[in-house]
Structure formats: C-alpha cells, structure tokens
Amino acid sequence: MASAEQPDQCLSGFMEQTARQILNYLEDQQLERFLMRLACNEADMQRRFGFWQKPPEIEEIVNVEMMRRTLDYIHINPVKRGYVDRAEHWRYSSAKNYAGEVGLIEVNFFE
Q1: pLDDT digits (tens, 9 = 90+) for 65-103
Q2: How distant, in Å, are the alpha carbons of 34, 60, 61, 79 from that of 3?
Q3: What does the CA dihedral 96, 100, 104, 109 come to, rounded to 10 degrees?
Q4: Which of 20, 71, 102, 103 is the most exposed place for a label (fewest CB within 10 A)?
C-alpha cells in the first residue's frame, strides 16, 4: 500500500527500476538458471526478460472499512501460503506493527 500524487507513474517507475536492478544482479552473478526462468516468450520481442507478471491494479482506498479489509488481506496472505503460522511472523509485513510490536519497516498507522 502506498500513497502518491501520480500512482500510475510512481508504480511504473518502481517496477521498472526494481526489475532492472534484479536482472542486472542476476546477470552480473551469472545466475543463468534464474534468468532462464524469467526469459520472455517470442511474442514479446521488445524485452529479453520479464520480471513482473502483470501490472498490479491501482485502487483508491475510500473509507476505513476498505482500508481494514485491504490490510487484513495483505496480512493474511503469507499465512494462507503456508510461509508462516501467524501474520506477525512475516518479516516484511506491517502485521507485527499492528500487533503492537516493532516491525522491520516504519509504518504510518491507519485508524
């Protein structure tokens, strides 16, 4: 979740920059096995590799109920996937912060 003046441009720039940095790292480290998993099909000849599957949908949070539903959805995903037993255990989640603990990242609480 993020806040930005022009979310489409901000997200596009983020996706482009992170993909380039990761692909450069994989190429520099000669990690061909990983690069081959990201190789684009012949229909997409403009790019050699594809990092992002598709652009995420941008949806404006319009009320408190929607914010809570969105946070719950984000927090429960690692649990549903079986990565952790509790949402607070996922290292990069704000769930820990919302549980009253100190998380890895700074969170601006929404209440």
Answers
A1: 998 999 999 999 999 999 999 999 999 899 999 999 998
A2: 32, 9, 10, 26
A3: 90
A4: 102
Q: Where are the domains of the chain?
A: 1-54, 64-98
Q: What is the CA radius of gyration of the chain?
A: 17
pLDDT, tens only, 5-43: 888 888 888 888 888 888 888 888 888 777 777 776 555
Q: What's the pTM?
A: 0.59
